Amino acid sequence: MARILTGIQATGTPHLGNILGAIRPAIAQANDPANESFLFIADMHSLTQIKDANALRENTYAVAAAWMAFGLDTERSVFYRQSDVPAAAELAWYLNCFFPVSRLELAHSYKDKMAQFKDSGAAASVNTGLFTYPMLMSADILLYDAEQVPVGKDQKQHLEFTRDVASRFHNAMGTEVFVLPEAVIQESVMLVPGLDGNKMSKSRDNTLNIFDDPKALKKRINKEIETDGTALEDPKDPDANPVHALYALIAGAAEAEHMAEQLRAGGYGWGHAKKALLEAVVDGFAAERDTFNRLMADRGALDEALRAGAERAEGVAHEVMNRVRVALGYGAR
Ligand code: TRP
What's the CATH fold of domain 212-284? Predict the structure, then answer.
């Protein structure tokens, strides 16, 4: 039984790319009885970017509702909001005191942000929270004795920092209090094309938001996916735009092959294909959409689920923090 932990960015309502690429596989792993899973919404990390109380709160709710709608078993997994267990901030402070500035300056995430600000010529500067982001992330992980941390490639360096800072702490204090986590890098993340054919991402504004109502979905599919003017009766290349690829991801291989044959044969237009895609999205995710909407209309239920998760998380965090505090010469609490 491995203890697996992952932090989920709270950047708003998850879109199809998030769901197929990250949420579904993570839920399958979390619901697997062979694992013990800790999943949390990283709303303290969000503060490095978002200074808007309402947005912070709403993003967290939307993420929680999406994970629960897609079947995360919140009894089995420990599912919580990072800010509900503030011990992470305490531990991050301690870790800060063991990690050299010169190493943090080498963080890709930080260097990228610095470069962006330089390019944009913006007067705003990188805040200190962004700089020490990897220490809060290390605290998230070390606070729960996590053994495995499934993350994307972009987070690999952060996991190296986590192991590094834990070892530095051990060496400096002469006692081992942390479990050194392993990164589990997901190499083959499902590629979900956006409506413009590029990788689906919020920043590109090319997302398909499956929780939207059918009318909004229809408008989005019809307006945002550009199709060429090949005459209805002419044969079409299924890969000329992302309609067929998206349909394949949602409707499955057999249905997708059928659509491809019709497109190649001619007499079947992109309008037909878009209609089929719309139906697949509307019907294929009907149950999840219902649950999502029900949860979003009942913040009490979401709060209750997250609070229960935080309580369980806190139980583990409390013990680990006592080991840390005693090692540092502070008292256990
Ligand atoms: N930094 C991670 C990301 O951008 C999110 C995250 C925060 C995280 N804390 C974590 C991931 C701890 C794994 C473990 O995706």
Answer: Tyrosyl-Transfer RNA Synthetase (1.10.240)
Domain boundaries, the chain: 2-192+299-328, 212-284
Angstrom distances, CA of residue 92 to CA of 41, 44, 60, 135, 165: 17, 12, 21, 5, 11
Distance CA 285, CA 267 (A): 29
How many whole angstroms from 214 Cα to the centroid of ligand 1? Answer: 33
Report the nearest atom of ligand 1 relative to the CA of 146: 14
Q: Which atom of ligand 1 is nearest to the CA of 140?
A: 12
Our answer on whether the CB atom of 157 is closer than 6 Å to any ligand 1 atom is no
Q: Which CATH class is domain 2-192+299-328?
A: alpha beta
9 CB near ligand 1 (under 6 Å): yes
Nearest-Å Rg of the Cα atoms of the chain is: 23
Is the pLDDT assigned to residue 123 strictly greater than 60?
A: no
Rounded Cα gap, residues 84 and 13, in angstroms: 20
Encode pLDDT of 228-246 as tens digits: 989 999 999 999 999 999 9
The predicted-structure confidence for 81-98, as pLDDT tens digits, reads as follows 999 999 999 999 999 999
Sign of CA pseudo-dihedral 275, 277, 280, 286:
negative
pTM: predicted TM-score of the whole model, two decimal places: 0.94
